[in-house]
TrEMBL record:
Subunit structure: Homodimer.
PROSITE patterns per UniProt: IDH_IMDH
Pfam families to which the protein is assigned, alphabetical: Iso_dh (PF00180)
Protein name, entry field: 3-isopropylmalate dehydrogenase
Keywords: Amino-acid biosynthesis, Branched-chain amino acid biosynthesis, Leucine biosynthesis, Magnesium, Manganese, Metal-binding, NAD, Oxidoreductase
E.C. number: 1.1.1.85
Annotated coiled-coil segments of the chain: none
Organism this protein belongs to: Silvanigrella aquatica
Reaction equations catalysed: (2R,3S)-3-isopropylmalate + NAD(+) = 4-methyl-2-oxopentanoate + CO2 + NADH
Length: 358
């Protein structure tokens, strides 16, 4: 198979975990005789340094000409958030990228890896036979993309962020969630705040309407505050969680507690044509950058999602997932998933072991 992949390493740990993931990609390419043309682009703070823009035109073109995008992470240290290099970096880069290519649905799988049960903070009785959830998050609406304004009124400093949804945005992501549920256990839990927000009331009615097209899928509605609690008392009730942009952002980080680390959480973002971007759910983790200690698994599993969803290379995807699993089974741990304090192997060592299983 011949395909072009846009590679956007970005900032922080992005370049380190990306370069390791490309080793995996190369091995799969050779093993299966594929030809992947990799075109690297700058994004985020690193792009700002080179092009004075967090998302330069040239990167847009690289993405537009590709068959799929593999993204690392963007953003700088909080204490430098006002430096030009980092100011509004996430908004100008990843959010702009999502908007440019209309990536409206984001999927984030979160499960307890049997081998890593000991780092899941939940009790065995709560983990039961295993937690295996997919969060389907709307990615182009909500408070993220409404008007943002900081101003002064009556000598008071004020700010507002407008939360907006239209029925089409909701229905697109709802269909995505129901289709996903059909491939899994036929259950969708739609999460909102319909006891307060108009956007959530609209959300609930549209999701219910879409749900009628999928009579074989059970639909439940849940308030987001209750959902957050249910994560800790009965997480096994969930199969597919469908939710809006901001709630999805928060709940997907919370769901990282199931595997035990954000370093294990891949994600995929789709537009209606099926073009997609793949990225770890975690951020650029500037405090870990340059130390060769970040966990490469979220990025590596993002590659596996890319093979599966963009290229229908199911065997290749499966081999990567199994190699990760075998590595964990054999007891190899990076620092973030190691229960022993101050221990853990490096990013490159972890990748070496995963590679050895491919
Ligand atoms: C995520 C991230 C982004 C988001 C940030 C970096 C803007 O937290 O992908 O979850 O909020 O969507
Ligand atoms: Mg987030």
């Amino acid at each position: 198979m011949k395909k072009t992949i846009a590679i956007l390493p970005g900032d922080g740990i992005g370049p380190e975990i990306m370069s390791q993931t490309l080793r995996i990609l190369k091995k799969i390419e050779n093993k299966f005789d594929h030809q992947f043309q990799l075109v690297e682009g700058y994004i985020g703070g690193s792009a700002f340094e080179k092009y004075n823009s967090h998302f330069p035109e040239i990167t847009k073109v690289i993405c537009a000409k590709s068959d799929a995008i593999l993204f690392g992470s963007v953003g700088g240290p909080l204490e430098k958030a006002e430096f030009p290099k980092w100011k509004d970096c996430e908004k100008n880069s990843i959010l702009a990228l999502r908007k440019t290519f209309h990536f409206s649905s984001n999927i984030r799988p979160a499960k307890v890896f049997a081998e890593l049960k000991e780092i899941c903070p939940l009790k065995d009785s709560i983990i039961g036979n295993g937690i295996d959830i997919v969060i389907v998050r709307e990615l182009l609406g909500d408070i993220y993309f409404g008007e943002h304004l900081t101003y002064i009124e009556n000598q008071l400093r004020k700010a507002k962020d407008i939360c907006e949804y239209d029925e089409k945005q909701i229905s697109i992501v709802a269909h995505q969630a129901f289709r996903m549920a059909r491939k899994r256990n036929n259950k969708v839990t739609s999460v909102d705040k319909a006891n307060v927000l108009d956007t959530s009331k609209l959300w609930r009615s549209i999701v219910s309407e879409v749900g009628r097209d999928y009579p074989d899928v059970t639909l439940e509605h849940m308030l987001v505050d209750n959902c957050a609690m249910q994560f800790f008392i009965q997480p096994t009730q969930f199969d597919v969680i469908l939710t809006s942009n901001l709630f999805g952002d928060i709940l997907s980080d919370a769901a990282a507690a199931f595997p035990g680390s954000l370093g294990l959480m891949p994600s995929a973002s789709f537009n209606e044509q099926g073009f997609a971007l793949y990225e770890p759910s975690g951020g650029s983790a500037p405090h870990l950058a340059g130390k060769n200690i970040a966990n490469p698994i979220a990025q590596i599993l993002s590659l596996s999602l890319l093979f599966k969803h963009s290229f229908e290379l199911f065997e290749e995807a499966d081999i990567i997932e199994k190699a990760v699993q075998k590595t964990l089974q054999a007891g190899y741990r990076t620092k973030d998933i190691c229960i022993k304090e101050n221990e853990g192997i490096s990013t490159t060592q972890m990748t070496d072991i995963i590679l050895s299983h491919i």
